[in-house]
Amino acid sequence: MELHNSQLLRFTTAGSVDDGKSTLIGRLLYDSKSIFEDQLSSIENTSKRKGHEGVDLALFTDGLRDEREQGITIDVAYRYFTTPKRKFIIADTPGHIQYTRNMVTGASTANAAIILIDARNGVIEQTKRHSFIASLLQIPHIIVCVNKMDLVEYSEKRFNEIVEEFEVISSKLMIKDVHFIPISALDGDNVVNRSENMPWFSGAPMLHTLETLHISSDINKVDARFPVQTVIRPQSEEHRDYRGYAGRLESGILRVGDDITVLPSGFTSKIKTIDCFENTYQEAFAPMSVSITLENDIDISRGDMIVRTNNQPTCSQEFDVMLCWLNNNSARPGAKYSIKHTSNDQKAIIKEIVYKMDINAIERNNEDKSINMNDICRVKIRTTKPLMIDEYRDNRMTGSIILVDDATNETVAAGMVI
Amino acid sequence: MNKYYLNYLDELESEAIFVLREVAAQFENPVILFSGGKDSIVVTYLAQKAFYPAKMPFALLHVDTGHNFPETIEFRDKLVNSLGVQLLVGSVQDSIDDGRVAEEKGKNASRNVLQITTLLDTVEKYKIDCAIGGGRRDEEKARAKERFFSHRDEFGQWDPKNQRPELWNLFNGKQFKGEHFRAFPISNWTEMDVWNYINREQLAIPSLYFAHEREVIWRDDAWIPLSEHIKLDANEVVSTKRIRFRTLGDITITGGIESEADTLEKIVDEVSTMRLTERGNRSDDKRSESAMEDRKREGYF
To answer: Which of A99, A165, B64, B260 has the smallest set of CB atoms within 10 Å of its CB?
Structure first.
């Protein structure tokens, strides 16, 4: 297969079984011939046993035993398919409000989000919630699929009404690139193949849209940020003098000879070599994992960040984040948490809750000062040592943090720097 | 189109190297679970890349069921030698001899489930705090839910409904004494990606993956290799076929497929037209709809 230059696109689908999310994913995999025969025959058997007519494609996305029994999605499930144009990773997440945390998780690495709307119901609270999360997590591309068009007689008028309803929400949110597609996941209209029932729709079917989204610009290529993960110091005679700073370029481009500054120390040097295994490069760009050597011998360790001297992030101990609470145990304002940011691991406290978002209404709530599971709040955070941060909207990798509760070691919150 | 983008294989490689470096940084005593199969070979190679020109900071851990393909063991020893890393072996036979587990009985007896105890005992014995595996999310529906950093409690158990959320590139490997982690650097790779990568990097793999003549019996819709560990039914006939293996597990349960693919290029071509999943030939996964989930909960790979 001629795939060698094709890119990887990660997208998330939020929604419940009622929206036809599982059917849509099943249809996408089935029509793109990504379902194997043994998987199909197992689904056929289960469909028969459950007394369904035909093959229930939704069964393909069933995961854990509890999910099968209850007919729901509990956790993020990852699925894969490939077309001659691209390789795709789907983060399939549950859509109910109690699973906001899973939606956020799936959205954190996505290039695109698919938002499903039932053509009969139009824009509902859940649509607003999903759109809000997509904009909060700065997913670069949104594809709004108006599903079950077969149940509204493939009406162009109905489709246009829903597009208008959605545009009312998207105008309030920072959503950049939106595509609208009328589909019927059950029958496959406009999923992989163009629908014959909706000749009035001049846009591309969903798969074609996914294959052609311009994603090369999704990663920030302006601000070079290289968090050091570990230092490579070979013990062998041959490489005794090698001292490589290993990490992944999270954004931007670095070249041999660039003037760099190491943060937080502020030491400066020049890039001597950029290596990965037996290859050496003149330049590296995000998201490449490389090992960098410098002209001068400086003390650098995990948690430090190498940046270009003329383009530096903010070094700060106090900043605002939009926090999504992920844990059953509510936040304890004033309590100490571990904070993880790039390769840095420090302690932090939540100093103040500025406001809480009502994510169904997309409104601020200034009264309620508690932070519970699935809440999204703007908070002020103070850390024990400075972190090298960018605003999340400029840089998803250096603008994001998680909080870990030292009492349980669980990841309790995800935050986006404002 | 600007030139600053990675193709999908380079992006997957970079992601895996990132994960391996995180493991090295966050854990005291991580090891690579090495089965001799293609996935663990790829993980080991990626680890070599991630820390070059230094040696990888991981020992290899092989859970030896005693039901091996001799070719796999030969391959393992050669690789360990060339990498200059330590090899740890957990022996299922020892677990049986020590009375920790009992051998399954009957025609379809296998040592697959017994490995769990051996693995967990070995993790405890060597105070391993992270075991890196070649598990991939496309393999099986329970694996589709795996994290890159997957927490195991003090009994070695996986609680799929209560996993730590994993966002962006921020991996939380914090643990209490007695607990451990599994890390899966090639989570996002598919079988096809693994083969394309092996072909691109021209990695050495055991000869079993290439088409070869072998004495086999037809059992559970697959060609099971004849070996000293197999008990034949009265009606089972031994025949010689030209086969190859898509996955390598115990010799007793790994079914081969008829194939002429004797080069990496031919394997890549063959896999791209396959219409059955690779685990379709593994009788360990056919036991029930939740076979993998149940074993994983107990501490399986």
So the answer is: B260
